[in-house]
Design brief:
Layout (H helix, E strand, L loop, with lengths): L2 E3 L3 E2 L6 E2 L9 H9 L3 E3 L28 H11 L9 H20 L1
Antiparallel strand pairs: 1-4, 2-3
Helix pairs in contact: 2-3
Length: 111
């Protein structure tokens, strides 16, 4: 199964940090669970025929909170969202910028 990181996270079991674009190294079940949570994209050729949900199971992994991410991970999310932040921005400012962007995106989606 081929799975690519689309949102930075730290794997709870291995402690490996995956950034956007990294190829996920884990079991198919873990990849499906992380895909369901929005962290990975699984290539179409890896979803079995007759299984439109891709065998998604109830997620067991815990999502890494923004506050638990590193500055590098937060900067990667800001870059992904197109948020411009100063080079010397502090971690709490990066967290606030991402939260503001996500809340505004949620509000725009509700309209």
């Amino acid at each position: 199964m081929t799975a690519t990181t689309i949102r930075p996270f730290r794997h709870a079991n291995t402690g490996i940090t995956y950034l956007v674009g990294d190829e996920f190294e884990g079991t198919d079940e873990q990849a499906r669970e992380l895909c369901a949570k929005g962290f990975l994209a699984i290539s179409d050729d890896s979803v079995p025929e007759g299984d439109p949900e891709g065998g998604l199971a109830e997620p067991e992994e815990e999502e890494v909170s923004l506050e638990d991410m590193t500055v590098a991970q937060l900067r990667a999310i800001c870059d992904e969202y197109g948020i411009k932040v100063p080079a010397r921005a502090k971690k709490e400012n990066l967290v606030a910028a991402v939260k503001l962007y996500e809340s505004e995106a949620d509000e725009a989606g509700d309209e």
